[in-house]
Amino acid sequence: MYRIAVVAKSLQSAIQIVERHSTSRSHILSTIFPHFEITNAVVSLKAVNPTPNPPSTMNTLTDLPVQSLLLRPLLPYTSPSSLFRTLPLARRNPTARIRCSIAVDSSATAISPPHAAAAAELSSSSNVDCVVVGGGISGLCIAQALATKHSDVVPNVIVTEARDRVGGNIITVERDGYLWEEGPNSFQPSDSMLTMMVDCGLKDDLVLGDPNSPRFVLWNGKLRPVPSKLADLPFFDLMSIGGKLRAGFGALGIRPPPSGREESVEEFVRRNLGDEVFERLIEPFCSGVYAGDPSKLSMKAAFGKVWNLEQNGGSIIGGAFKAIQGRNKVPKPPRDPSLPKPKGQTVGSLRKGLAMLPNAISTRLGGKVKLSWNLSSISKLDNGGYTLTYETPQGLVSLQSKSVVMTVPSHIASSLLRPLSAGAADSLSKFYYPPVAAVSISYPKEAIRTECLINGELKGFGQLHPRSQGVETLGTIYSSSLFPDRAPAGRVLLSNYIGGATNPGILSKTESELIEAVDRDLRKMLINPNAKDPLALGVKVWPQAIPQFLIGHFDLLDAAHAALKDTGFQGLFLGGNYVSGVALGRCVEGAYEVAAEVTKFLSQFAYK
Asked: Distances in Å between the alpha carbon of 369 and those of 150, 358, 393, 530, 589?
């Protein structure tokens, strides 16, 4: 007989359910999916003739309206022990998709044979310990941490990604002798980051910037070096003598007391270190790291380590000494000898760009990574686990798991979690992601101003631009100076960032206009005014780029966690850069933290 591999117990029960809801199904779908176009398209699935040994992927259901396929909760699954059942769609409404990513070019593609094989293998399993929703760097690193550090408790992990690639906002492009990043550009080589590199087999691909290379800030039309060590403080010309004295006395505690309420970055820095430190150092730094507005960013949330110094020691210097004393009292665990040892304060990348990291993790996880899987719903099971329903290239897939980690952007998580917890969804919907554009351009070396060269070369990490200096570009990274093999001989590669919380209007500009704006800015301080037009390599506009850690950020995050807990959704975790921090290294550190939380939960989990 025909073998029916569908989510209904039988063909008859499926038809009865569809008929029972046929008069109202369009209304129901329009309510659940108000932004989707609902049509009366009919899916025709070919019946498969009986064979002596029919394959497990045979399907026999014919002429089932596409709307009923989306009403997944109405169709009972075949067996509680089954992880999923698939129903391939011969024709799919292209607008009826829920994506878990925000990239502009995130179109789904046909599933590859290895993914199909992996799906078939998964269907024979009895359960999944953890589903990580989102295949960006946070989600992949959580899965990798579970696989390498906690496999005894969490042996079966699945990562699902809506796009047809992993990596999230990490995009490396290589073309015509150039290699550039269209998302994050580098990372701080912390031990957590280096551990991830070693575990992924990328130790030999690590490249580090020269720690002695200068960093610059534009002030009064000139690029001025930022002090890299204490010995530089008396001599650098970015600040006046009065500004340096004000900063020193303030750091010692001779400054106004805290206000007693949550302070913005601007309020904290002006109070502790003075106006010059804020305007000439911290404000451009906020633009470079967060693309944010320091008058709205929370000091506690955005720069918690510095905020804690004053809280714990009464002043920044007092807190620093107290932290040193505390570290000396507690023996430091021995460092893993397999980790590289960076020299000085620097940043890192990989030989062929940052995309090597997510690609390496995905390769190691193998069939545990599912691409082009669009999550449409999550529901809680009576036994404490969760059912996740996806639209995949193979059709609808229902997956059961003991725990779930949501690493998609907060606004996507809000939409997916609203049916479970309106309180959590409301909190997650309030995080703000401003737009940022990454503009990668190249000039010949002779286009660089002579006064910006060191021993005839453009050297340094890059430059930041305070908003008060009359330029639109947030900052520029000297990519070809920072890391090797980024540009052909005789050329300079510059990675520029424009937009952010103080300039959301970039969304109305064309790529040509963005390139012109960056070029116009660079000719004010770095590029000779009469130099030829730059070679435009790429423009990547991120409409919702970096989550802003605004005043009240932790309150919203705590409210989301509390709402999930209060409504009984233990085992559902929140992760990603709006939780851990926006820097790439913090995403990796946060991944290890979330993996530990999942492990602790599952070690106590009693599956009913």
From this structure: 18, 11, 14, 51, 21
Kindly write down the DSSP assignment for every residue of 149-195, as one continuous string. H-TTT---EEEEESSSSSBTT--EEEETTEEEESS---B---HHHHH
DSSP code for 469: G
Question: What dihedral angle (degrees, nearest 10) is formed by the CA atoms of 16, 18, 21, 24?
Answer: -160
Please count the other Cβ atoms lying within 10 Å of the Cβ belonging to residue 84. 23
Tokens coding 477: 């990274």
Cα(608)–Cα(603) distance, rounded to whole angstroms? 14
Mean pLDDT of 408-436: 98
Q: Give tens-digit pLDDT for 14-47.
A: 334 333 333 333 333 333 333 333 333 333 233 3
Q: What is the pLDDT of residue 473?
A: 98
Report the 3 state secondary structure along 219-233.
ECCEEEECCCCHHHC
Confidence of residue 419 (pLDDT cuts 50, 70, 90): very high
Q: Is 219 exposed, middle or buried (0-12, 13-18, 19+ CB in 10 A)?
A: buried
Residue 200 structure tokens = 């992924």
Average pLDDT over residues 539-563: 98
Q: Are 8 and 14 in contact (CB under 8 A)?
A: yes
Q: Between 592 and 289, name the one with better pLDDT.
A: 592
CB-neighbour burial class of residue 435 (10 A; exposed 0-12, middle 13-18, buried 19+): buried
Q: Rounded to whole angstroms, how far apart are CA atoms 167 and 270?
A: 38
Angle between helices 316-329 and 241-252 (to 10 degrees): 50
Task: Report the Cα–Cα distance between both ends of the chain, in Å, rounded.
Answer: 35
The answer to whether residue 604 scores a pLDDT higher than 80 is yes
Q: Which residues of 226-265 are buried (b: 16+ CB within 10 A; e: fewer)?
A: bbbeeeeeeeeebbeeebbebbeebbebebeeeeeebbbb
Taking alpha carbons only, the member of 373, 395, 414 closest to residue 131 is 373
pLDDT bucket at 344, cuts 50 / 70 / 90:
confident
R_g of the chain, CA atoms, integer Å:
27
Q: What is the mean pLDDT of residues 465-481?
A: 97
Q: Where are the beta strands (DSSP E) in 431-525?
A: 436-444, 462-464, 473-477, 491-499
Helix axes 584-603, 191-199, angle to 10 degrees: 70
Beta bridge partners of 462: 215, 477
Instruction: State the Cα–Cα distance between residues 257 and 239, nearest whole angstrom.
Output: 24
Span 61-69, average pLDDT: 32
Hunting for tokens 């913090």 — which residue is that?
586
Q: Which pLDDT does position 7 carry in this prediction?
A: 33
Beta bridge partners of 369: 159
SS3 499: strand
Distance CA 89, CA 99 (A): 18
Instruction: Of 276, 227, 224, 219, give the one whose Cα is nearest residue 247.
Output: 276
- Measured in whole angstroms, how far is the alpha carbon of residue 487 from the centre of its chain? 27
